Amino acid sequence: MSERTLAIIKPDAVKKNAIGDIVSRYEKAGLKPVAMKLMHMSKRTAEGFYAVHKARPFFDSLCSFMSSGPSLVLVLQGDNAIKKNRDLMGATDPAKADAGTIRKVHGTNIEFNAVHGSDSPETAAFEIGYFFPGMEIFG
Ligand code: IDP
């Protein structure tokens, strides 16, 4: 079933010049970028995006990190896009991620972990709508 997911190449990975490698992994896995923009989020934008994590102890630090530099925000489309992207990403903590996953290769620690990917159809719908109006998605 073709679906859409929201991916973010986070500021740590953009700083490390890893955009090309990561986008290439999406494409090779059959995930087509149908919308994409480089953006430097304000802290408020990051707080709205991660609102579900508001009560977590790492919330403030996470939002500071996400607003520390530009990120590449993408909509990926393909069969089982949500799970496929989560599999490509690997576990939240790069130290626990499987070999060959994006977080294993490009992540630094549980916070600076290179990429974001929606974890369910409901969060994908919220996250895609948060960053992209329909007319900017070319699926
Ligand atoms: P996910 O990104 O793998 O879905 P979540 O639990 O939804 O993981 O956490 C969102 C983001 O918050 C993570 O990608 C990571 O950047 C950060 N994060 C998660 N757990 C911790 C933690 O224990 N300490 C610091 N940052 C964390």
Automatic annotation (TrEMBL):
InterPro entries: NDK-like_dom (IPR034907), NDK-like_dom_sf (IPR036850), Nucleoside_diP_kinase (IPR001564), Nucleoside_diP_kinase_AS (IPR023005). The keyword Membrane does not apply. It catalyses: a ribonucleoside 5'-diphosphate + ATP = a ribonucleoside 5'-triphosphate + ADP; a 2'-deoxyribonucleoside 5'-diphosphate + ATP = a 2'-deoxyribonucleoside 5'-triphosphate + ADP. SMART domains: NDK (SM00562). GO terms for cellular component: cytoplasm. It is found in: Cytoplasm. Keywords: ATP-binding, Cytoplasm, Endonuclease, Hydrolase, Kinase, Magnesium, Metal-binding, Nuclease, Nucleotide metabolism, Nucleotide-binding, Phosphoprotein, Transferase. GO terms for biological process: CTP biosynthetic process; GTP biosynthetic process; UTP biosynthetic process. Residues 2-139 form the Nucleoside diphosphate kinase-like domain. Pfam families: NDK (PF00334). Its cofactor is Mg(2+). Its main location: cytoplasm. The active site is at 116 (pros-phosphohistidine intermediate). GO terms for molecular function: ATP binding; endonuclease activity; metal ion binding; nucleoside diphosphate kinase activity. ATP binds at residues 10, 58, 86, 92, 103, 113. Major role in the synthesis of nucleoside triphosphates other than ATP. The ATP gamma phosphate is transferred to the NDP beta phosphate via a ping-pong mechanism, using a phosphorylated active-site intermediate. PANTHER family: NUCLEOSIDE DIPHOSPHATE KINASE (PTHR46161), NUCLEOSIDE DIPHOSPHATE KINASE DDB_G0292928-RELATED (PTHR46161:SF3). Belongs to the NDK family. Homotetramer. This is Nucleoside diphosphate kinase. It comes from Nitrospira moscoviensis.
